[in-house]
Amino acid sequence: MESLALKLKHGLLAFPLFPCSIHATFIQSQNREYPLNVFNVLPLAFVAVLAGCSASSEQTTSKEPSLNDTLPKLTLQSVLPSPSSNEQCNAQMDSDILFGLGFQLYGDQEWDTAKSCLELAAPKHPRAFCYLSMIAGQDESKNPDQRNSDAFNYMAYSAMQNDWCAEFGLYQAYQYGSSGARQDHALASRWLERSSVHGYPEAQKELIEQYEEQGNLVAAYAWTKIMAKDDDSTAADALKTKMTAAQIADGEKRYTELAGQVTSKKAMFAEAREEDVGRYSAEIYQDYPDTFKGLSSAERYDYVKQSMYKAMDLPFTKSRGHVLSYIVINRAALLKKPDANIANDQRIVSLMEDKELSVAETIEHGLLVVNKFYR
What domain of life does the UniProt record list for this protein's source (predicted)? Predict the structure, then answer.
């Protein structure tokens, strides 16, 4: 699981704020780094959809027992017996903020505090179990057998909820015999394909490489087309030079079958934005708590979501830090003037466009403008 842990640490398991490459570019915001192009997560809202995708995939590709049947029989109570509060997180907080705080603390390597926040968020955010698995795998307070058991069980429970992060983790566990799992390449391959079906690009890339190494050009061709951008008609051209006309025809047929099973890029992007609401909310909750004054949980969620999408469409928002700045400053403006639109205020736009300002400085100066000129 080491390589997956590194991907998590560096933000490679998070969807990009804007649709672009999967390589992380970090933007400094106050004392925290923001991955601009990172791959995110599939929130709970898509569990039912993904369950259908998973069942369809396994029925189509294999007559073996369901992958879930290869896992220990776990319940939420067995993997989360007694979540505890800490100085930053408690059970009264909104679950998306708890997840966002846990994610931030994980990135800051504050493992114990992150664990508590993620445990509290996990019942409504299965992705939290994948991060908990990473934390459990390096818990020096436990012996190796217990660490492996905890890490594997977190992954297993999350994978049963159709979480591609955990599914990819199980692929690595069985592929390399880590986290206490026995090495089983056949089982590893099945978990890799399931993670791919659930939309994880790194799993899809690994799957294509394996198919090419095995000489299964038909499957490699189909998955290459799945990974390609919608307007890229040349993605599989290199493979075509190695294939017969019959193989290409079979590859097209397999691609058509997969296209109806694999979670779409559009769905992955939309669900990633849902989790971004929690991440932005968590940081604002910590650093700019007055932003949410007077809002119920539902109103706060709706405001952050709507403001985030508005900010993403503005020409001067180029990073996560810009979006965060917009959410905070715009809310302050609305409290002063209900019909305010800071996107039309050149004083604030100029601050957002100033590359010399940090996110904290942009927000500080933006709030000064609001307090001075908005009535």
Answer: Bacteria
Q: Which two tokens stand for residue 59?
A: 């029925």
* Residue ranges with strand state E in 208-308: none
Q: Report the pLDDT value the prediction gives residue 359, as an integer from 0 to 100.
A: 97
CA pair distance 100, 118, nearest whole angstrom: 9
Q: Which residue has the tokens 């905070």?
A: 328
| Burial (CB count <10 Å: 0-12, 13-18, 19+), residue 145 | exposed
Taking the chain, what is the end-to-end CA distance rounded to the nearest angstrom?
Answer: 55
Tell me the pLDDT tens digit for each residue of 151-180: 999 999 999 999 999 999 999 999 999 999
| Distance from C-alpha of 246 to C-alpha of 206, rounded to nearest angstrom | 25
Whether 265 is covered by a domain: the verdict is: no
Residue-level length of the chain: 375
| pLDDT interval class at 65 (50, 70, 90) | low
Question: Residue 197: which domain range?
Answer: 42-259
Q: Is residue 12 included in any domain, yes or no?
A: no
Structural domains of the chain, count: 2
> Is residue 224 assigned to a domain?
yes
CA distance 336 to 369: 12
Packing angle of the helix pair 127-136, 111-121 (nearest 10 deg): 150
Cβ proximity of 304 and 280 under 8 Å:
yes
